Every structure is written in structure tokens, then in C-alpha cells.
Amino acid sequence: MKDCVLTLQQVKDILKAEVLVGNDQMGRVVTSGFGCDLMSDVLAFAPPGALLLTGITNAQVVRAAQMVDAAAVVFVRGKRPLPTEPVLEMAKDIRLPLLTTRYLLYDSCGLLYCAGLKGCTEDGGRQGAE
Amino acid sequence: MVVDREQNESRPFGAGGREPARSPAPLILEFPVRGMDFVSAGDAAAKVKKTLIQVGMPDGVVRRAAIATYEAEMNIVIHAREGAIKASITSDQVEIVATDVGPGITDISLAMQEGYSTAPPHIREMGFGAGMGLPNIKRCADELDIQSEVGKGTQVRIIIKRSGEGQ
């Protein structure tokens, strides 16, 4: 299997996802995938351009994604931000696409991996090595 | 709150591959941080990152400074009553000083170990408190100094050098 990049439109189709923010950015390319519910691990290991898949839906997901220059965020397990939190507004402000899928985290990552989207172990492993 | 003490320092530092502009006075940014304010948390780091991009810092410096500032800001939000983030930016480096009024750190060497955390369960449910904050800061920093007094507060000083890019 050859590593490839995917557009957000392809990600949307593969995960049967709904776009919450960034319908006009479906041509954006993601270069790797990172599935995680720990934001500090995102900060430690996610390279720029990664697609972040997570079940966490609070505002700090947007902030963490912003800090690591993530290409977009997919909320798994059918989750979506609470309307009482300004998550969608924050994402719109920084033009960070947000999607939601009913697939669980493992299944979502597996589907994208099978489509050729590589993980982050190589880059993250180098960063995390002591 | 942003304090731009040197208006003429907001020009790009060495943009376009030229020698970095000489900057006798740093560009200073200061932001108050409130404990347990998880909505505004990250605002300071976002503004520091935006400023570093505007002044033309290399991508690697911007990324390391943004991550270190964000982790330091989250530490204040999670653990302290109140605090502040101060960024001093020159053509050569970014200095971040995070100061808080809070419980302090009992054992700094223990807090530097990956996986060690005193954060309560509700913080962990938000995706934080995994014991990666200070190790992440160390990973991003060229220099790191932590001073803490139990029952009073903590000061974390981070330096990220332009020459250290690529770490």
C-alpha cells in the first residue's frame, strides 16, 4: 500500500461524515492521521498537516489543533460540540474544518489507513525519543 | 491584554531571508490568565503564535513557541488561581515567562517526568492532565527554568532560540 494524501472531501466520503465547519475547504489536503483523546499527546506528537480524530469536543481541541497546525478535526463516535461552548465559532475564526462521523475512533483510523493515509509514528517517534 | 512597548519592533524580523533586523528592545506581549477558565484558555498562546508569524519567525520556532506557551497557559488554568503569560520576542529568540499564584509544585523533578500529574479526574476527561505538560515544554525549549514555592506559586521561564530550529 502506497502512502498518499487525502482531501477532506475524500475523508468526508470515507467516514460518511457531516461537515460542521469548513464546507468551502473540502479541497484541503491532509498528509497524515492522528487519533487521540489526550490533547497533550496531540501537542507532543502530531505533525503539521495532520488530520486529528478525537472523541473530545471541547474548545481546547480547536486550540490544540491550532497549535500544531492540524489540517482539520474529525469528531468520532457521532460526537459534536455542545451548543453552549463556542467551539464552532472558534474553528470558523481560524478556518479550521470540523467534521463528525458515527464511526468509532479505531474504525475511523482504520478506514483512512486503508485508503492510504499514513500515521504519525515516524515523525512523532523522532520527537518523542529520549 | 497586549502591551506593545516598541511600536517600531512590529516589523518582520529578518523576513525574506535577509539578516535578522537588529532589535535592541524586544517586542513584549502580556496576557492575564484565569484559573479554571477553560473557554479563554489558549487565547494567549494563539496570540503569541499569530504575532510570531507576523514578525516572520521560522515555522519551527513558531511551532515550538506556540506549543510551549499553550502548555504553560494550560498549567495555569488547570492548577493555579490566576497568572500571566509574558512573551519577549527578539530577532534571535522568544522568551516565554508563565507566572502564577497557586499551589506551587512540591517536587519539580517528579513533575518533569512523563505521566506524572496531580490534575483531578474532571481535567483528565477534558483531554489534559496526562502528565505531559512540563515534558512537552522541555521538548520544545532550548532553555527551561522552573521556580516554585509551595503554597505561593510558580514561574516557568522558557527560551526558544532561532538558532535552535530543527530540534
Q: How much strand of chain A? A: 15-25%
The biggest beta sheet of chain B reads: 5 strands, antiparallel
Topology as H/E string of chain B? EHHEEHHHEE
- How much helix, percentage-wise, in residues of chain A? 25-40%
Approximate strand percentage of chain B = 15-25%
- Helical element count of chain B? 5
Query: In which range does the helix fraction of chain B lie?
Result: 25-40%
Following the backbone from N to C, one meets helices and strands of chain A in this order, namely EHEEEHEHEHEHH
- What gross morphology of chain B would you assign? globular
Secondary-structure class of chain B: alpha+beta
Quickly count the helices of chain A: 6
What is the CA-based Rg of chain B, rounded?
Answer: 16 Å
What is the count of β-strands of chain A? 7
Work out the largest interface and the residue count of each chain.
Answer: A-B, 24 and 24 residues
Helices and strands of chain A: which structural class?
alpha/beta
Mean pLDDT of chain B: 88
How would you classify the quaternary structure? heterodimer
Any low-confidence stretches of chain B, pLDDT <50, length ≥5?
Answer: 1-10
First CA to last CA of chain A: what distance?
30 Å
How far apart lie the N and C ends of chain B? Answer: 31 Å
